[in-house]
Amino acid sequence: MPVSSNMQGKVVTVTRYIMEMERNIPDATGDFSNLLSEITLAGKMIQREVSKAGLVDVLGKTGTVNVQGEEVMKLDALADRIIYQALDHTGLLCVMASEEEEDVLHIPPEYPCGKYVLNYDPLDGSSNIEANVSIGTIFSIHRRVTPGNGHGTEVDCMQPGFKQVAAGYLVYGSSCMLVFTTGQGVHGFTLDPSMGEFLLSHEDIRIPGSGNIYSVNEGNRELWSQGTKDYVDGLRDPGKRNGSGPYKSRYIGSLVADFHRTLLYGGIFLYPSDTSSPQGKLRLLYEAAPLAFIVEQAGGMAVDGTSRRIMDILPDELHQRTPLVIGSRENVEDYLKSDR
Ligand code: AHG
Ligand code: MN
Ligand code: MN
Question: Read out DSSP for 257-292?
Fold first, then answer.
C-alpha cells in the first residue's frame, strides 16, 4: 500500500520515503531508516564499480573458489566487501551472512552491535558480469533472536522467511533500481546518477495475477522430474491459454533480473530441483526468502517446487539451497496443479 497519496508526481528520495513509512510504525526508532539508507549507499558504490567494470581491473576471476564451490569473480569479492564495510560500523547489526563467506560475519570489536541481522548475496548473476548483462544484490533483514546486545550468531541469521522485517534487491542494469519491502507493500526507486539519489519510481508494485512469460534454464530439462518437464513443455503448446498461443520464454541467468521482470510483467520463474541439484541451486536465506517476501507483498506466490511456501521453510544450514518456483499467483498455482 502506498505510504501517502500526496507523494504522487513529487521527487521523493528513498530516505524520505523510508521516514514517511517509519511514521506509520508507532515505536519506530529510526534505526530501520538508517539501516536501509546505509544499504542504498552500498548499492550506489557497487553500481559505480559495475558501471566502470569494463575499464578497470575488476573483471575476471580472483582465482579463488567460494563456499559454494563457485569461482569468485573480482566484482563478487568487491561487492561483498563494500556491503560489509558500509554496515559494520553502524551499530545497527549484530551479525551478517554473505553468500561469499562460509561463516557468519561478525561486527568488528571496535563497533557496537545492534538489533538487526543482514543476510545478503552481494553480487547475483556473476556469470553475466563480463557480458554487461544485468546483475544485482539481494538482501534480507531480520531482528536478532539471541539474547543480549553483543555479537549475534548463526541462529540469528538462520530464521524462516516469515520472520523477515525487510527484504530487497538492487538491479545494476540499464538503470540502477532498488526494490524493497518492509511488509508495507513493495516500492521501487531508480537511481538518478546526476543527483546520486534513489528516487521513487514504482510505488506499491503489484505483480499481475497471471502472465504469459516463463523463465527457466531449459538446458536442465533432461534433469527435471517428469512433472516439471510436462508442465514446461505444456507452456509451449500453441493451444495453451485458450488458444492464444504459447508462453514467451525469457531467461537472463541473473536471478534478480529474471525476478524483476517477472514482478513487473507477471508470469513464472522456476529453478526446480533436478537430478544434479536435488535441493535446487538457489540459496534460501539470501536469494529465495527475500524474493519470496517481496513477491508475496506484491500479491504473488513463492514455493519450493512442492506446495511448501518458501517463507515457511525453517533453515538448518547457512547456505542451504532450495528449489524455487515464484511469480504470479495463477501461474504458480497452475504449476502446483501439474502432476510433478
Ligand atoms: P550468483 O551469481 O549469486 O551465484 O547467482 C547465480 C544464480 C542466479 O543468479 C541465477 O538465477 C542462476 O544462478 C543461474 O543458474 P544457471 O546458470 O544454472 O541457469
Ligand atoms: Mn545469487
Ligand atoms: Mn552471488
Answer: HHHHHHHHH--EEEE---SS-TT-SSBIIIIIHHHH
Residue 281: name the closest of 121, 166, 96 by CA.
121
pTM exceeding 0.90:
yes
Q: Name the CATH topology of 213-337.
A: D-Maltodextrin-Binding Protein; domain 2 (3.40.190)
Fold of 5-202: Fructose-1,6-Bisphosphatase; Chain A, domain 1 (3.30.540)
Q: Read off the pLDDT band of 27 (50, 70, 90).
A: low
Task: With beta carbons less than 8 A apart as the criterion, state whether 13 and 198 touch.
Answer: yes
Q: Which residues line ligand 1 (CB under 6 A)?
A: 70, 99, 121, 124-127, 217, 253-255, 281
Mutational pocket test of ligand 1: of 129, 171, 282, the residue with most ligand atoms within 8 Å of the beta carbon: 282
Question: Residues whose CB is under 5 A from ligand 3 (ion)?
Answer: 99, 121, 123-124
Q: Could you give the C-alpha distances from 78 to 4, 83, 248, 282, in angstroms and in order? A: 37, 9, 35, 21
pLDDT band at 129 (very low <50, low <70, confident <90, very high): confident
In the structure, what pLDDT confidence band is assigned to residue 190 with cuts at 50, 70 and 90?
very high
Mutate to test the pocket of ligand 1, among 127, 137, 215 (most ligand atoms within 8 A of CB): 127
Q: Which atom of ligand 1 is nearest to the CA of 123?
A: 3
Span(s) in the chain for CATH 3.40.190.80: 213-337
What confidence score (pLDDT) does residue 90 get? 94
